[in-house]
Design brief:
With about 260 residues, this protein is of the alpha/beta class. The chain is about 45% helix and about 10% strand.
């Protein structure tokens, strides 16, 4: 069980510090498709809404298979895939439309934000009071780091972090050890003095431990509505992976507040 010898704590964001619900997740996707459709029409490309939702759903498996390796797909690459899938490659995305398409694709993250875990603020405040360095290591998915920063700012918690890393900006994400090493460097701490907390056995626990950190699994139960959607990114990223049974966290917690009992 983690205790002495630790000087810093890093956190996952989605489903750890923020908690999402299936209805909001799906609503964001519908807003993305409507936004893409509206922009494409401005450029005289008419794509049926149902085809765009199909393209977006098809992109989920493609994205997750890439993300499992730690590699990233830029937002514009995601949009191209969705449009080409929706139109069966009949249309290429107009270069002059890309900025508008990108804004339509990422802005729903701000329109329907997730809830902040009720324990997030108190836990971060207590860790800062105890003198720990605090970091954030976030795999960004469909919402880039600039959107995540706005959510963190509006939630009043961004200033707690001494370092905040987002996979789209770093160029690789969890479980790639490089993003954990980058976090340790930004915090100015030896990597073996950092405890990482997250909900995903593969990206958070396996990734952190292979990089040399201690790792705590936030044993968060996936809301059933996510599993009912075959194209849910959250459900797909939490589906069992190769070697999952070998992943052993240094501790498992049901409440974020339990982190405090693991540290002096």
């Amino acid at each position: 069980m983690p205790s002495s010898g630790l000087s810093g704590v890093t956190f996952d964001l989605w489903e750890t510090l923020f908690l999402d619900i299936p209805e909001l997740d799906r609503h964001r996707d519908m807003l993305r498709c409507k936004g893409l459709q509206d922009v494409l029409r401005k450029y005289e490309i008419d794509v049926p809404f149902d085809e765009l939702t199909r393209g977006l759903d098809e992109s989920s498996t493609w994205l997750v298979n890439i993300w499992r390796t730690g590699e990233q797909v830029p937002t514009q690459g995601q949009i191209r895939y969705i449009v080409e899938s929706a139109t069966k490659k009949k249309y290429a995305v107009p270069r002059e439309a890309m900025k508008e398409l990108e804004e339509a694709y990422v802005s729903p993250g701000l329109v329907t934000p997730p809830a902040v875990n009720v324990d997030t603020g108190p836990v971060l405040l207590e860790l800062r009071t105890r003198g720990y360095k605090i970091g954030l290591i976030c795999n960004t998915g469909r919402g880039p780091g600039r959107i995540m920063r706005q959510l963190l700012t509006s939630s009043g918690i961004l200033d707690y972090f001494d370092s905040a890393l987002f996979s789209d900006e770093v160029g690789h994400g969890k479980p790639d050890r490089r993003i954990f090493v980058a976090a340790a460097k930004e915090l100015g701490l030896p990597i073996n003095e950092i405890l990482h907390v997250g909900d995903n056995p593969q990206t958070d626990v396996r990734g952190a431990k292979q990089a040399g950190m201690k790792a705590v699994l936030f044993d968060y139960v996936v809301p059933s509505g996510f599993n009912e959607r075959s194209a849910s990114l959250f459900a797909l990223t939490r589906s069992p992976g190769v070697g999952d049974s070998d992943v052993v966290a240094d501790a498992r917690i049901k409440s974020l507040r339990e982190v405090l009992s693991l540290l002096p």
